[in-house]
Design brief:
The chain is of the alpha+beta class and about 150 residues long. The chain has five helices and eight strands. The strands form two sheets. A six-stranded mixed beta sheet has the order 1-2-3-4-8-5, with helices on both faces. A two-stranded antiparallel sheet has the order 6-7.
């Protein structure tokens, strides 16, 4: 995606640190959800070890949220990972990201671990969601061969 302008405004909805986005964006496979040639959503998959790939960023424009676009984009991303031959799909989200935790679990992901103090160690500015400090990354995974 070097030649195209990255929709940084969308990427920042899911990851509030532009420097962190720069650490993974150029290693990722980027999918866009378009409507009338306007980018409403974006997801970024980064290959990990073996047959595992991780969703490192997925976001829907604020004015398009709550309309099913997130579910559509996630289902497409899952399908693309499966079609590419991956067996495991991971995603991480903050301990304070209550809606996202529910969203991923409703979509078939299961909690597999916690990276304690991830957001404290890797982000310069504190993050708060739902009145909760975002400290830990909750890791979820889906087996794609099921």
């Amino acid at each position: 995606m070097e030649s195209e302008q990255l929709p940084m405004d969308l990427l920042l909805l899911a990851d509030p640190d532009e420097h962190m986005i720069e650490t993974y964006i150029h290693n990722g496979i980027i999918y866009k959800l378009l409507e009338d040639e306007k980018v409403l959503g974006i997801s970024v998959l980064v290959p990990r070890s073996g047959a595992t790939v991780e969703i490192v960023n997925i976001a829907i424009a604020e004015n398009a949220q709550g309309k099913g676009f997130g579910t559509r984009l996630l289902q497409y991303t899952i399908h693309a990972a499966r079609q590419a031959g991956y067996l495991h799909l991971k995603v991480g989200t903050g301990n304070s990201s209550l809606n996202q935790l529910a969203f991923y679990q409703k979509s078939g992901f299961r909690i597999v671990g916690v990276l304690r103090d991830y957001f404290i160690k890797h982000y310069n500015e504190p993050i708060f969601e739902n009145g909760i400090p975002c400290r830990d990354m909750i890791m979820l995974e889906m087996d794609l061969n099921e």
